Structure formats: C-alpha cells, structure tokens
Amino acid sequence: MSAPRDEMPDLSGLTRRMDSQDGRRFWQSLDEIQETPEFLAFLHREFPENASQFEDPAGRRQFLKIMGASMALAGLTGCTRQPEEKIVPFVRAPEDMIPGRPMFFATALVEGGYANGVLVESHMGRPTKIEGNPEHPGSLGATDARAQADILNLYDPDRSRTLTYLGDIRVWDDFVAGLRSALDAQRGAGGAGLRILTETITSPTLAAQMDSILKEFPAAKWHQWDPDGAHSARAGAVLAFGRPTDTRYDFTRANVVLTLDADFASAGPGRLRYIRDHASTRKLDGGRTSMSRLYSVESMPGLMGSQADHRLRLKPSDVEGFARALDAALGGDASAGKTWGAWLDPLAADLRANAGASIVMPGEYQTPAVHALAHAINARLGNVGKTVFHGTSAEARPIDQIASMRDLAYDMERGAVRLLVILGANPAFTAPADLDFARKMDRVPLRVHLGLYDDETAELCHWHVPQAHALESWGDARAYDGTVTIQQPLIAPLYPGCKSPHELLAAFSARPSVKGYDVVRDFWRAGGALGADFELGWRRALHDGVVPGSALVPGAVVPSGSAVAPVSPAASAVPGTPPPPPPSGGMEIAFRPDPSIGDGRFANNGWLQELPKPLTKLTWDNAAHMSPGTAKRLGVTLERTARGIQTDIVELQYRGRSVHAPAWIMPGHPDDTVTVHFGYGRRRAGRVGNNTGFDAYPLRTSDALWSGTGLEVAKTGERYTLACTQDHWSMESRDVVRAATLAEYQATPDYARKRSHEPPREMTMYPNYRYEGHAWGMSIDLNACVGCNACVVACQAENNIPVVGKQQVAMSREMHWLRIDRYYAGGANDPETYHQPMMCVHCENAPCEVVCPVAATVHSDEGLNDMVYNRCVGTRYCSNNCPYKVRRFNFFLYADFETTSLKLMRNPDVTVRSRGVMEKCTYCVQRINQAKMEATAAGRGLRDGDITTACQAACPAQAIVFGDINDKNSRVAKLKAEPRAYGVLSDLNTRPRTTYLGAVRNPNPRMPPIPAGEPIDETAAPQSAPGSAHDEAPAPGHP
Amino acid sequence: MSSDLHSDQARAAREAELRDREVPVVEPGHDFASVTEKISALVLTRKTPRFWWVGFAFGFLLLQLLFVAIANLLFRGIGVWGPNVPVGWGMDIINFVWWIGIGHAGTLISAILLLLRQDWRTSINRFAEAMTLFAVACALFYPIFHTGRPWLSFYWLFPYPNTMGVWPNFRSPLIWDVFAVSTYATVSALFWYVGLIPDFATLRDRARSKKFAVVYGMLAMGWRGSAKHWHNYETAYLLLAGLATPLVISVHTVVSFDFAVGIIPGWHATIFPPYFVAGAIYAGFAMVLTLSIPLRKFYGLEDFITMRHLENMAKVMLATGLIVAYGYMMESFMAWYSANPYEKFMIVNRMTGPYAHMYWALIVCNVIAPNTLWIKSLRTNVPYLFFMSLVVSVGMWLERYVIIVTSLHRDFLPSSWGMYSGTFYDWSAFIGTIGLFITLLFLFIRFLPVISIFEMRTLLPAAEIPDEAVPAPRPGETHP
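YS: structure for the whole thing
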C-alpha cells in the first residue's frame, strides 16, 4: 500500500462547469455537483469520517453548512481565482508567482473622475497595498491618503454585494430585461424620458459608450454631478476662453507662486505632481541657496497656506476683490475695489520681476471671476506656455454641472423623466439643497443605481446594481494632463454580481452581458491609439500603467477680454428655480470637502475616519471652524478632558435652513466666517460611517456652492465631545521644529544644530557600539512636508494598524505609528504653521530599551529598535520612557480578527498584534528583510533605493528618505550631512537615527510684518479642565 | 523641703511629677495572666462582637468588587482602565506604590525599632506587620494586572531557565521591583510568622475547642516554651530583624527607581530614593494609626496601646512628613536651579496646570497638616490623630498621583500632551483592594492575636530581671 499522497483533488472539471454559470444557475449547479462521482470521491478522500454522514439527507444539509466555507476555499466557487482575462504585471510575469513574494500591477484609481496612476502590490492573487506608479506623470510614484485608503474600500464588508430590485435579490438577466422594457418604451420618443447621471468622466471608453447610447436615444440627456468638482474652474475657463479648458501648472519653473484660495496640495487632479514639483523648488539640499517663494491668499487654512512664506487671510468673498486689485496693479483694468496696499504692492512687484517664471493659481473654492482674473494675470505676466498651460479639458464632456443638476431636478419635478440611471454618484446625499433632489427623484417611475454601497441614493432607487471596485474592474481614465491609464483589475470581483460602469452601460447595448475586459479592449482596438500591433501596445500600456502619448497637448488659448467683467452668481436660466437671495449682513459660511473622507464617499472607511485632519487633527467628526476672535465673540470655549475635547454646539442658520454643529477654534481662519466640511452625517454609509459628524449638505445651495453670506451663528448651550489627536498649539519654546528665514540660513547654515546642545558621541562611559555593515537611518525634510497625511495611511496599510474608534481616540489611544505634528508659532490669528512627521526615531541610546522588564524591545546590529510582539507583556514602561511618545499600545483587542474580508487585506509580512502588546514604527523591517533576501538571491549587495519604507514611497513631496547611513553615497547619508540636519530632542542623548532638515521660509523683505495679534499662548486653545495652563510663548520674531 | 503633703510646694512637686511622668507603654495594674487573658480572649473566648461582623461584611463586599474588577479586566483588557499614551501609568501604579509604601511602617516597627530596643514597638508590631503583609498582598494585584498580558507577566518577570533561552532584562527597574517586593513579602511573612509561634502555642494551650487547638497546634510547630526554644527563637528573630531592616530602605528605594531611572522630567531626580522611603514610612505610620485607634477603642486595648504609642507614632509621622516636605522643596528648587526648560515647565505645570488642584491638596495634606502635630495638645488628641492619619493617607495617594500623572501627561513634545483620569473600573479595582485589605484585617483580628502576647508580658514590671536573685513571690504576695 503506497503512503497516502497529499495531492489536491482534481476539481478542475467541476470548476470549469461552475465558471460558465452565473446567478441562479450557479446555485443549481452546486446542487448538481453534489451528486457527481468526482465530488463524492473528493469527499471520501478529504473527509472520510464525514462522508458517510453525507449520504444521509438530514446529515447532508448539516454537512454542507459546515463545508460551505471549505468548498469556497477549495476553489469550487471560483471567487478567488485570477480572472481568465490576462492582466499584465509590472515587473514579473504571472508565471513567476512565488508564495511570499508580491507582484505589482499598474492600474489607476479614479477620484473626481481623474486617474491616479498606481502600482498595486498583490500577494497570492489579492491586492494588499497601493503604491504610486513612478512612470505616471500625475504622481511620479506618490499617492495621497485617499488612494492609500482605497484598499480598505475594496475589502469593506459593508460593500454592496447583491443586485436588488426593491430589496429583493435578482440576477443580471432580470435587470437587463427590466431595463430593456423601460428603454423600449422610450424608443418611440427618442429616449426623451431617459436620463443618465454620472460623476465627472474622463474615461474614453465610457464616453464612447455614452455616445453610442445618446446616438440611439437622441433625446436622452447625460447629466454629471460631482459635489467636489471643478465647477468654478470650468465656469471661469468659459468666461476666460469661451470654452472649458484644463489648466496645468509646471511648478518646477516657477520662482514665485501666488495661490488664491487654492490649496494645490489637497485639491485638484494634479495635486500629487504639484506637491512634488513645488517641493523641488523649496528644497535646499545639495548646496542650493535659493528657493521659490509662495504667497497664499486663503480663507480656511490649507496645507499650502501652512507652507506659504506669506499668507493673507481673507473672507471668501474678499478674494475676488483682491484678485481684481492685483489685476489692476499688474496693468489691467484700473477700476479695482478695495486697496490692499501694503500686502499687494510687494507681491505685484515680485510677480512682475518673475514674469514668465511665476504662477498665479486660482482655487476651485472661489468664484469663476477669480479664475478668469487669474488666467488674465498669468497671460499678462507671460506665464502661459512656460509655467501655465491651458489645453483641452481631459473630461470626456465638460459641462456646467450645476446647471445640469438644475435641469435634471426641474425635469424630474415636471414628470419628464421616466428612467433615471445613476452611475456611481450619490445625489440623494450630495445634491445641492435647494434642488430638493431626493424628493423629486420619487417622481421618476424607474430608477437604477450603480454604486459601491447601498447608500442614500440606492435606498431611493428601484434597481441597485453593486459596483465593482476600481481594483476589480477593467476601465480607463485620464490623469490631470490627459494621460490615459488603462485600468486592470487585481482580483476578480469579491462578490460575483458586481459590475463596473462599463458593464452596466453594456446593458443598453446589444451585448448586455459583455465583460468589461472586452468593452475596453474593443474600444482601444478600434481607436488605434495603441499602435499598429494592438496586442503589444495593449500589454505595454498595462505594464507601464500609462498609454504613451496620450497626454493632451496644451493649446494656444488666450483669455478673452471678458474676464474682468463683474460677475454675478451663476444665474439660472431654467424656469422653476428661485433666484438666489441677495447677500445680506451676518457672517460668511464656506463649504469644503472633508480632508479625510472627501465628499462623503469614504465615510465608511475606518482609516480615513480615524485619520487626523491635517490642521485640526480632528477625527471621526466634522466641525464648524472659526477664528479665535469669532469664537471669543460667540462665547465658544474648548475644554480638554481625559475623554476628549469638549466644545459647544452651535446652530448655523443660513438661508432659512439650520444645522447644528460642534464648533472648532482654528488659528489662521478669517474672522466672521465659518467653514464647514461636508461629507459627514451620513445615514447609510455602513457600520463605520453612519452617524458620524453632522450633515452640512442641507446648507449648501446650488448658487453658492463654496461660500455664501448671511450666516448666523449662535450657541445652543449643548456640549459635544470631539476626538482630537493633538490639541496643543504651540511648541512651548522647545525648538522641536527649527525654522529660519532664507537669509538666516544663508548666514548660518547650521542654525538648526546650534539651537540645542547635543552631547558629543565620545562622552560615554562605555565604548560606542560600532555599526559595521548596514546602519539604517532616515531623513525628513521639513521644507518639503506639506502635512498631506499620505504617509500616515500608507503606514497603516502596510503594517496592519488597527482602527480604534472615536471613543478610544478621544482617550488618546489612537494607534497610528506615524503622526504628523502640527505646531503654530506667532500670533493666534496669523500663525506660522509647521508640519513634522514623527515616528519611532530608532534611538541608538533608546530610553525604551533599558526599561522593558522582559526585553521585548531590543536593538539590532543595524541600528533598528526591534519590537518583539510575542515577548511583550504590556507594562507600558517603554511608552512612558519614550520622550517622543511614538509607541502605541493595544489597550483592547483593536485588531479585527473576525471580519473575513479584512483578513484578505492584511499584509502577510507583518504580524497582526493582539491585545496587550506594544507596537511602533519598525522602519518597515519587513521591506528591509525582503530586499536583503532578494539581493542575496540575486547575488548582489543592497543598493541605495532598494528599500523604500511605506511612508517614503507614499510621500508626494519626497520629504522622507530612508537608507543606509554607512553608505556614504546614499541619499540619506548626504542629507544627514546637510548643515540643516538636526535630531529632535537630541540633547537628551538619545542619538536618533531619524533626523530632520530644518524648515526654511523665504519671506519677501518688502512685505509688511504679520499683524501682531494675540500671541499663540494657548488661552484661545482648548483649555484643560479645570483651569488653564499658562505656557511660555516663543520670543517675538522667532520664526 | 517640707514633707507636709498639703503644703503648696509639695502639691506643686506632685503635680510636676504627674506632668512629667512618662506615659507608660503598659498601663499599671497588669500581670502576666491578665495580659494573656485580655489578648487571647479576643480570639478564643469573647463572643464575636457585632461590629466585627459589620466590618467584615463590608470588607467582604468590597472584595467581591475586586473579583468583578479582575474578571472584567481579564476578559476585556486594560483599556477598561484609564491609561493612554502619554499617560501609560495611572491609578494602577499610583495604587501599587501607595500600598507598598503603607507596608513599610510595619517592617520598621518590627525590625528597626526592635534593633533600636524601643519598647513602645511591642504592642503595635504584630498588627503593624500584619498590615504590611496585607498591604503587600493588595499591592501585588497591580504589577500583575496592570500589564497587557497578565497571564504571561506573572511568570515572565521572574528569572527561570526556559526553552526560549531568554532571561528578563535585569537593567529594568521593574525587574528590580520583582526582586525587592518578593523579597519583602517573603521576609515579612517569615518574620511575622516566626514572631507568632509562641503566641500560637499560647492559643493552642488555652483553646476551648478541639479544632482550634489542632489548628493552632499545627501552626505552633511544637513550641514548648523551653529555654532552648526561646534561645533559638531569639536568634532567629534577631536575624530576621537584621534582614528586614535594610528592606525598609531598599524596597521603596527600588520602587522609586521605577521613576528615577526614567528620563521624564518629574521622575528623573536623585532625591527620589530617600524621598520615597520617607514618604512610605510616613504613609505607613498613618495607616498604623488608622488601624490602632479604632482597634484599641473597640476592643478595649487602651491599656496596651497607650497614649505613648500614639504620640510616638505621631512624632514619627511629623518627622517623616518634614522629610517629604523637604523633598517637595528640593524638587521645586532644582527645577528652577537646573535652568532645564523641561524641568521648569514640569514644576510650573504642577502648580498651575490642569492638575494644580491635586498638587495644592497634596501640599495641604502632606506639608501643612502634619505640622500641626508640633502642638502637644493636638498630638495627644485621639480623634484628631485619627483624622490626621486619614489626611496623610489621602495626601500620600495624591503625591503618587501628582508624580505619575502630571509628569507623564506633559513631557517633552507638546504634540503628545494629553490628559488622564481614572475610570469607573480604576476606582472599583482600588476600592476592591481596600476590601481585600479590610477582609484580611478582620480575619486577622478574629483569628490571630492582634498584639504580641509574650512580648507584652516582657514589658510588665513583673518581668524585670532584678540585679540580685529574688525568690518568686508566693501566691497572694506581690513583688516588692
């Protein structure tokens, strides 16, 4: 008798049979399979003791219940296999798939319609981590926080899984049949009752599908709505050029940049590239002595405003006046409004001196007139064609989306809409409040929704088709410059019924069940843009992640003269919508998308909910932000307690609507203005996102999407607890971030080191440890960091960091290994703001290592402070003794061990920590080890750049550099040799391996000094209960 | 001088004599039999008084709270308590240090006062040492259960050869704690037990019921009271006293190293060892007063625990309180003198920050209040002494709170500053340990002699050994 062989039973016949089925027939075939001799043989071999139970009918049901999961694992359901369509990996061919070694595939994630080119790391056929695609012009390898967090959306257990009709499960064929009959009814009228609502679309394939639908139904209409879209930019371009254009900027050639309420680090499809390019003009390593200058005119403080050398805080309504004055100062129409005198004249002089090498960038949150004015100013300065490029819009069909929504609402109201198909949007939640969209939707007899979640809009629709995530779909999209990326899926849809937008629109066509793969391939084959050899071109495009030569060429577009005409709010030409009320007194309100969860679509993403917002450090909530002066006037006080920050709930009354919101005091915010973030207050986001924050959309009307006047604010008397991860404002004169002006830096390049006394390395009783071999270290350039939070989420994704929830964050137990500290300096009204990423600095003299009783944290011979999870008993002495407070403790079992889909998401190279153990940044030791193994396998040594930590890879500004400091030629060694390099708290003799490059600002000596307001001595900041702490303010003039 | 009893001078002289007469350690009128009878009656003959049942029930109820707290903690995790980042230790370590500190008085009374031949230790050393043991038992709850994984920490912190080949990290003060506290517990238990052996024998001999006699007999380990036994006993007792004496200094020194070895401003101070030891003795004597005053009142032991004891304990409290006050002063002075901005901020934050009320309450309880004990009339006022002892206990708890929480919550980087407050479960665990303490104490009072019987007998005038041999008095005669 031969020894039992451990071979996989041959189920390929069964799987093939099941693959060809779908829906109801799928379930039937499962039943059939039970009877087949192959299956019975499988049973007997695998589970001999249970197989007899299987024959008995009563036992069979029980058996199947138990075996259901394992049948899935055995591959009988086909869920976890690679799609039959051939996707092309970035580095290695699929044949190379080796367990434990990830593969990378290039694809794109779509946000706001525009593509973010990414490389997705795939372990054993499932995507686990998103990185940037270095070949993609939109990012050059970086990602932002939302792109990093998108992987959690893929595996979100609350995602919609089944196709439903009025709540009942249906199959695809039912849907097609239902859609067909509605379309047939429309055919006579040319589709007059058909409306398709999408978000902003750049996808050529989708545009082609829409074109063919509109050709078949000429009277149908294609509406678009993106609550966070570039409405003002489009309207401004129309004002300036007569047609929608996309404006691109080349920051590498700009010496002076002025932003008009434009935070190009957080808004706009080009933001990753812009951060990178702009940061490259501000870095001072490698002996550079000059840097660019950034002026920022802002209302709500943003990331670039915090980096600006000069910042002017204005109410949103004042920015247009400023732009006009600037235009006049630069030689335009002299009939300007207010004079801005001291601030504007040196700015204008600086711009003039840098004509052709400057950028004036208007922000989406401003009026179209500001955009037109900025275009005119750029033209006047000769920037066009050098640093500013206008070209065809990358959007498939750029329209006035506000008017489009007004049209749709009006049509729905008068009963003209018979069939409404919503692709991906959530208008029931995000549509402007004055349109009353949700109620009007009720009048449409048949409503179809395609979405990732069973959200507020799905609730109101008859058909809900679950959308496949971007990582599960074929598709394409354009980036900010028009470059096309063909999206390839990393995994077959987790829930088999999910459809991509292409597959949904295919239901309109003659081939309703065509796969997205075929749709996209057919389009590109027909188009010919991939070259004569389609297959080669296709594989190349998938491999690289970009379609070569698809960038839109900037055209010669000249702004027309009508830009300077006074602009009234976008008047509605559609009857039925009320005219906007005239601006009255009172305060102003400004609407912004939430920095973490966007317009609300990411509300169920725990990583983003828990991500501390860049300047406020709030989590799990949005707030009504106001300046310290306004807060004092209203009597709003913040109180620090051990269970969170207590604040007042204020009532925001605006245009007849009222909303209650927790107040937040925001240094740098304009007075008499309140900024609210929309996207919160969702009812049907999922278990994570429901009932967080307040809904600001009810205040947002279509005529005043970004700001409006006539706001009244009053305290309600109720208090509310906010979870904030950093509530202290000032550095308390501790020189944590060492900043200087460019002049000071040029005079004293090593100013940063001079500010503290670091004990000399020889001053020790014991001989210093000699690090031969590798010595890992890191350098973070504070001149480059804009505080965008990409690194924080990247670290969370890479290291399986758990989400703890609002109550625990309020108790200061958030688990982020990497945090971005935000310090204010100067006055509370116009502070200077600094961002400092802080993670374990891997001290050579680590205070934590001495005090651990069980030696759970030890030092490696390469300089890493290693955390041994399975030895840690959790006394927390190491956390107490860490002066940087970068250690995180699992007070409860924070990691989700239960939810199955999340298990797929985790990085298999990193332990998932259980209750009672300490954790902290490991310098991505799993990546270090992986690189070492690969180098050994390849028979070579490690090279600089072989290892990038997760934070380093994600950073758009390339602020974080990791490497071997023993290698004198490595980037990190050179950066550490910079005069600006210093270690935080190095006077404690910790000898940190992570050092920082001091922040240098480039102020214009002719600009007026910052108005001396209240010093940032924390009296306006959250007060600790009871009583307040009077801390020392930094010396005046101290940057 | 006139020998007339009624003359003014004679009266004045008598009054002076009365005034200056030292309060004795044992009130006159007792002999061997009465001493033995009085103390052992508490255990053997006297009906268990109602107040004992009430007290025991109360303590036992609180003990149940401790069990619930432990179960809750084990099942859900230490997140049910208040610590966070930055304040990694809160009431868990506050209470640990508080309980350990309290224990030091017992050992000082038993060991150091023995070596210094202070008579007044005799009537209080038994229950003071018991108090030490029970306090250490309550304290031990915390080092184990404050860890994230107590099912591992209770044995991984001990050095034992294992298959992992891993020893604990001997550089860590927490390991020193393990050695110090386990040594302390062991030596205290041994010391206490050895001291009890002759009394167990007494109880064995006088027991009314068979089962008590058997139990006490086993505990007495065959004590016959022979000269040889006494000789061995005295040797052993002295040795143990010698072993226990350095522990009074070393154990709390090691506990203070938990903080002093850390780099946090407010912890990293060389004054911590003497400051903590003084504080421990201070708190311990306060607890001894808290126990002895009701004990003597309810059980009628005023003859044995006299005003002299209470006054002496008050004087020790005053002395150690002054040392503690010196510690506070030095901390403040050094914070300023060092010109170290972190240290300076630490002291200013203590005095004016969000926990300022704790700090000033601490100053009142530990600095201002004990200085009232300079006044003799207050020092000899029993209700006032009881009240003072509670004030000092609270004050010492506040001191640990201030040291731990205010130092941790605002340290080097302002970005990580936070706040701490104890949760409901923190308090229920603490109250639970108080319940454990009360339960053990009441059991001790009921079943063991609260005062050392044979040592009390040595204090009687009848026990004095005269210079010349004198025949024993015949029954009915008293000693000349």
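YS: worth flagging: Chain B has one domain: 68-159+173-461.
IM: good catch. Also The CA atoms of residues 147 and 284 of chain B lie 26 Å apart.
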